[in-house]
Amino acid sequence: MLLACPLLLCSSPALVDSWQAKYLTKKTQAGSVEAIRMLDEILVQLAASVPVDLMPGEFDPTNYTLPQQPLHQCMFPLSSAYPTLQLVSNPFQADIDGLRFLGTSGQNVSDIYKYSGQEDYIEILESTLRLSHLTPTAPDTLGCYPFYQRDPFILEECPHVYFCGNAPAFQSKRVIGADGQDVLLVAIPEFSSTQTACLVNLRNLECQPISFSAFSAEAEEESEMDISH
């Protein structure tokens, strides 16, 4: 089984600006520093037992334009000591047990959602797959590095699993290509708001959500209210 869960250090440009201002203020620590420290502690527990690939998101501390470069290992002094932790780019492609996984943190899908009439993330994901292009709206409305001779976002081979992160809700779909390719599409929900990750069965490509809602802030508040009563 493979567990997929997008982690977002910052969810909006406004927070990025405010953290930057705080970071430049003496005797005040930026919120992003504390967030990365907490993430490092979580990654230590995961990397100690399973391989972990960490992909940056839209507002994380790396370059903004696609492809985003991996987060620097100096930000994770504890977990980076484990060889099982791999800091990867966005988009990211990997071969796992003979299966090709390809995906992004979701900017390519959310940008199409903003500027088109399509309202279903999984259908947008399928459209980009059939177009054989990860970011069809770049560089018009989605920032990307100005490549000169080769477009790295063109799909040269069909993946077995194609995913996007930070979707509003979990969705999955199996599609068959023109040449008989069997592809699992997965829209991985934003964990900070849904507390949901995804499990993929590598044997039959079945996918199901797994909820950690018991650890949400709302659940903690409700439990405190129950105790007080």
Quick synopsis:
This protein is an alpha/beta fold and 229 residues long.
Q: What does the model show?
A:
The chain is an alpha/beta fold and 229 residues long. It has a single domain (2-228), classed as Purple Acid Phosphatase, chain A, domain 2 (4-Layer Sandwich). The protein has helices spanning 13-23, 31-47, 107-115, 121-131, 191-194, 217-228; strands spanning 2-4, 52-54, 85-87, 92-96, 99-104, 161-167, 171-176, 182-189, 196-200, 207-211. The strands form three sheets. It has a five-stranded mixed sheet with strand order 4-5-6-8-7. It has a three-stranded antiparallel sheet with strand order 1-9-10. Strands 2-3 form a two-stranded parallel ribbon. A hairpin with a 5-residue loop joins β7 and β8. α3 (107-115) crosses α4. The chain is globular and about 45 Å long. The termini are far apart. Residues 14-23 have low confidence and may be disordered.
Feature tags:
229 residues, alpha/beta, five-stranded mixed beta sheet, 6 helices
